[in-house]
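Practice problem: TRAP transporter small permease protein
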Amino acid sequence: MRSYLDHLYRISGYIAAFFLFAIFSVVIIQVALGLIDEILLVLIGKAFGLQISGYARFSGYFLAAATFFALAHTFKEGSHIRVSLVVQHLPEGLRRWVEVWCCAVAAVLSGYFTLQMASLVHDSYRFNDVSSGLIAVPLWIPQTSMVIGLVILTLALVDETLRVLLGQRPSYADAEGLLDQTSDETSDLTHR
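Answer key — structure tokens:
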């Protein structure tokens, strides 16, 4: 089961990377089209208005998808911002229960946000909400990526809660160790 969950979080990160690349591609193509238009204006005195219709809107949809698909992966990798100033100084036993409480509360909140977002997607689908602009996109399509990302995040938070509850080390703690190592190396360099 562990390998399936880790694989799911990794795939979610890859999907987020794909959407970031999609943003990059759309913006580069739009810039290239604008450049071609400027060159044509100089060479033949006429610009054709080359552009991707709704490129900014699609980039926004891709950004939302990238953000929400990245949530679980970055959480499990320890890349989320955590305030561990107090927690790191607690005794091991108490620290474990504080970690369980934090993960459980985060899982409940994420579950609530997931249900609310799913309700929004359902309403968008039911009322046939579409985006404004030249290309009318049914809003439930980009919103669905947000729900999927939140479902995976909620699963990751429940997974982490159970992991810590069973006495295992949190997966995000490995990244904290790297940060501690980096700060130790930095202080060693400054003292030389």
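Discussion: The chain has one domain: 2-191. Students who identified this feature from the tokens alone can consider the problem solved.
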